[in-house]
Amino acid sequence: MKHRVVLGFAAALGLLVAATFVVSSQTSVAPKAIETSVIRSSDLLEKAWSLPVASAFDKRVTWQSNGSRCGPASLANSFRSIGEDETTEADVLSGTGTCWTGYCIIGLTLDELAELARKKTSRQVTVLRNLTAEQFREHMTHANDPDRRYIINFDRRTIFGAGAGHHSPVAGYLEAEDLVFVLDVNERFKPWLIERERLFAAMDTLDGVSKRGMLLISP
To answer: Considering the entire predicted model, what is its pTM?
Structure first.
């Protein structure tokens, strides 16, 4: 009986891992699209990195360990920037039972990510959903506040023409240029800038039956 349980567990784990890789392969983005769909000019990126919140990340992003763990990676990077103890994916997930196979199958929803965050910080975690374009702009004007951290959930297809839902920290807002600085936790994409309206359009999409949105972590 013990051997059957072990074999059954191994088979289930294998199916979960396989499913993750299938989803990943179906939602991949071509290198050319990654390069040309967003803004990466060195002068603007340097200006963005000098913003108050971005500076707290110290020009360093710890990349997600696999294609399904953008949510935990976003929390880990954000927590590191505000001095929390949970600064790795493993720290963020430890003891929670979330993504226990090593994969967050199909990824975490915004609400699931908020629940995970609340288990690891005493700070206030707020789900921002159903925002208007004007409300989103207002939040972006606060994205340079050192006491705030935003994690945005958006659909890559709206920006890159392919891909799926993704989480990443917002590290600041260049208000004069109307550009948002996104610290993409996927190493293939790396940090990029994008027009606020385009990012809003990518966020203002459905994840299943619920709207995407942002997490706000604040004192």
So the answer is: 0.88
The dihedral sign for the CA sequence 167, 36, 161, 201: positive
Among 32, 34, 45, 43, smallest CA distance to 193 is for 45
CA distance 137 to 65: 31
Residue pair 143/120 in contact (Cβ under 8 Å)? The answer is: no
Provide the token pair at 140.
Answer: 């972006």
Distance CA 103, CA 123 (A): 26
Count CB atoms within 10 A of the CB of residue 176: 7
CA distance 74 to 76: 5
**Do strands 192-195 and 206-207 pair parallel, antiparallel, or not at all (unpaired)?**
unpaired
Q: How confident is the model at residue 191 (pLDDT cuts 50, 70, 90)?
A: very high
Q: Which two tokens stand for residue 69?
A: 């763990």
CB atoms within 10 A of CB 195: 15
Q: How many residues does the chain have?
A: 219
Question: Where in 50-98 does DSSP place strands (E)?
Answer: none
